[in-house]
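Appendix C: a fully annotated inverse folding record. The material below is reproduced so that readers can follow the format used throughout the book. The structure is listed first as tokens, followed by the designed sequence.
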């Protein structure tokens, strides 16, 4: 099977020259006066206009506002660096569609707290990136618009729900993008697209407006990047806003000196198969950590079938909330939601009696999850059980049972950190013979993002 990468032959000048700059390099060149923010932002606009017909990753643009902001860039760590905002949170003046067509969106009257915190680093938003409908799928394939494609192979999905963000960063349109993670939605597309994606400890970052009514606070925002140093710089820049009882991250600039106990697990307890190339890449990551002086030994999976069942039921509960919100808050038509969203909600309604016990178990899972770190400092696993699937494999038009089984088989590793609230990072570590990226996941106890970033540097150095 041959792959077709995104075609950048139409780019020239600074749009082509700067396509490989990460956010840190972009900011350094801005600070040195080599380029201006106006030039950098315009180069990103040129890339967006040239490449998005292939990617399908942008749902709204305001390039005039971006150009105006670039004329007076802030002095933040990413002052003058272009970005996109995931279309699950409000950006003042831009419509928020939540990846849906079931209602008519209006310009947001104010910017969400999470987006405001992100933009406090000096990033300049060019518009909104595509997302799965209300964040409920692991692919970004709207039924009313073209799918969001993976720039590594345009026949494949970029993942979800932060599919647009990951597609734009992986293609080099922007070096860093706003994302969100309620079940793996930062880490999964990062793995599919060969990016760095850190899901933060619950409460470390500003809360998402779209998640404030969740009875179990599984979701957090974050960023997807092409380098560990960009992710580290972002978290250092917003670290002062953390809760007083949470350990600081500080500025992480390379591997740490502490030798850590790494627990390795690959086979999920749900009995789903793991792609052989994913298995090999995860074992290679374990070997790289051992070569760096860390001890690696087998670990049990930190979750079981009960957690998977409870999490899926909770996903359905959120779909019920989506139906309610579309009808009574957004003035839309719930029957126009995607089949997957409606099927999730219908299943949750049929099992309404099971919700209270499931929510209690999910809220209690933090303590159960923490016991995994009595023996280990970090857990290493694949991020996904296979590489990016082809477009259509996870389509929201599929019947409920088919799509559910495919999601559970491909993505058994990420929900544990959303249920527990603990941090985890997906790191690119190799590729399949067909060239598709493979991601490995490192997970740590609450508040230990610094530990994850130090290990991420180790993996990045072992396999740039």
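Designed amino acids, in order:
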């Amino acid at each position: 099977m041959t792959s077709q990468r995104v075609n950048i032959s139409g780019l020239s000048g600074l749009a082509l020259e700067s396509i490989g700059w990460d956010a840190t390099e972009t900011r350094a060149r801005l600070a040195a006066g080599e380029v201006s923010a106006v030039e950098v932002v315009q180069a990103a606009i040129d890339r967006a206009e040239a490449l998005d017909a292939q990617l399908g990753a942008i749902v709204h643009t305001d390039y005039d506002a971006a150009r105006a902001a670039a004329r007076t860039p802030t002095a933040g760590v990413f002052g003058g660096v272009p970005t996109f905002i995931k279309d699950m949170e409000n950006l003042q003046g831009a419509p928020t569609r939540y990846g849906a067509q079931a209602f008519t969106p209006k310009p947001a009257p104010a910017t969400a707290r999470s987006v405001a915190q992100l933009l406090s680093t000096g990033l300049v938003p060019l518009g909104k990136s595509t997302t799965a409908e209300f964040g409920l799928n692991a692919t970004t394939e709207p039924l009313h618009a073209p799918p969001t494609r993976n720039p590594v192979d345009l026949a494949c999905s970029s993942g979800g729900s932060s599919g647009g963000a990951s597609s734009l960063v992986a293609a080099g349109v922007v070096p860093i993008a706003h994302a969100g993670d309620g079940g793996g939605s930062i880490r999964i597309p990062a793995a599919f697209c060969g990016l760095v994606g850190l899901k933060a400890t619950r409460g470390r970052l500003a809360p998402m407006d779209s998640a404030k009514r969740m009875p179990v606070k599984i979701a957090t925002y974050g960023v997807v990047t092409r380098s560990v140093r960009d992710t580290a710089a972002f978290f250092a820049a917003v670290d002062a806003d953390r809760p007083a009882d949470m350990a600081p991250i500080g500025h992480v600039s390379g591997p740490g000196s502490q030798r850590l106990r790494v627990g390795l697990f690959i086979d999920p307890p749900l009995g789903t198969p793991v792609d052989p190339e994913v298995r090999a890449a995860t074992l290679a990551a374990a070997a790289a950590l051992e070569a760096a002086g860390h001890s690696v030994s087998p670990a049990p999976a930190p979750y079981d079938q009960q957690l998977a069942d409870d999490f899926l039921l909770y996903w359905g509960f959120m779909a019920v909330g989506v139906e309610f919100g579309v009808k009574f808050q957004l003035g839309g038509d719930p029957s126009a939601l995607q089949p997957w969203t409606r099927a999730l909600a219908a299943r949750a309604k049929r099992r309404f009696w099971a919700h209270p016990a499931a929510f209690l178990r999910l809220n209690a899972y933090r303590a159960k999850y923490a016991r995994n770190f009595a023996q280990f400092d970090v857990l290493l696993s694949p991020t996904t059980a296979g590489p990016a699937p082809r477009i259509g494999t996870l389509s929201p038009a599929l019947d409920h049972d088919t799509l559910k089984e495919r999601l559970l088989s491909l993505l058994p590793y990420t929900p544990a950190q959303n249920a527990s609230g603990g941090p985890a990072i997906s790191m690119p570590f190799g590729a399949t013979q067909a060239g598709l990226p493979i991601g490995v996941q490192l997970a740590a106890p609450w508040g230990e993002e610094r530990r994850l970033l130090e290990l991420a540097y180790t993996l990045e150095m072992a396999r740039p």
